[in-house]
Amino acid sequence: MNMDFKSAEELLNLCEENQLPISEVMRQRECLLGEVPRDSVNHRMGKAWEIMRSSATQPLKKPIKSMGGLIGGEAKKLEAHDAKNKSICGDVLEKAIIYAMAVLEANQARLGYVELHAERNIAKLSIVGAGMMSNPGVAAKMFESLYNEGVNINMISTSEIRVTVLINEKDGVRAMNAVHDAFNLAD
After folding, report:
1. DSSP label of 20
2. What are the pLDDT digits (tens) for 5-56?
3. d(CA 149, CA 174)
4. pTM for the predicted model, two decimal places
5. How far apart are CA 83 and CA 104, in angstroms?
6. Residues 15-28 pLDDT 10s
7. What own/partner pairs with CB < 8 Å and gap ≥ 24 does 165-174 have?
């Protein structure tokens, strides 16, 4: 079975041709391309489902480590890239985005979303530290340094000890330097 689908339509055709649900196609893909035993994949899928179900019905009281989003051998390729000090961008990341988008598109009616969009060419910039809780204004200082540098913030995520922003990839180094300067950090 060819597991290299690039859209929801191709994924659904693969499911129809083989008379399999999406979950089984993804399970077989992970086993085949990721060279992972079926019981291991089942365990990881079950754990991810429990986390999703819990977070959908009640707030999580503490962070829970979940399996990563890379599937079907991409995690293995990522490890190989990392071992060679290569970037994860390009082929590996693009395929992971394609597969995730296809699964989400195929489940649109059940999930109930109106629009799905994957943003490429982004960078993530975070400030982390236990002292953030006792030092008000840390996030404001980060945001001000990015504003002064003309860096547009696409998304903000926070926790008690972390502030993360998603920005355009082309602004990544400039943004990092601006934040470093704002907090008087060495290069």
Report:
1. -
2. 777 778 888 888 989 887 788 788 878 877 778 888 888 777 776 766 666 6
3. 8
4. 0.51
5. 31
6. 889 898 877 887 88
7. 165/124, 165/125, 165/126, 166/119, 166/122, 166/123, 166/124, 167/122, 167/123, 167/124, 167/125, 168/121, 168/122, 168/123, 169/121, 169/122, 169/123, 170/121, 171/123, 172/123, 172/125, 174/149
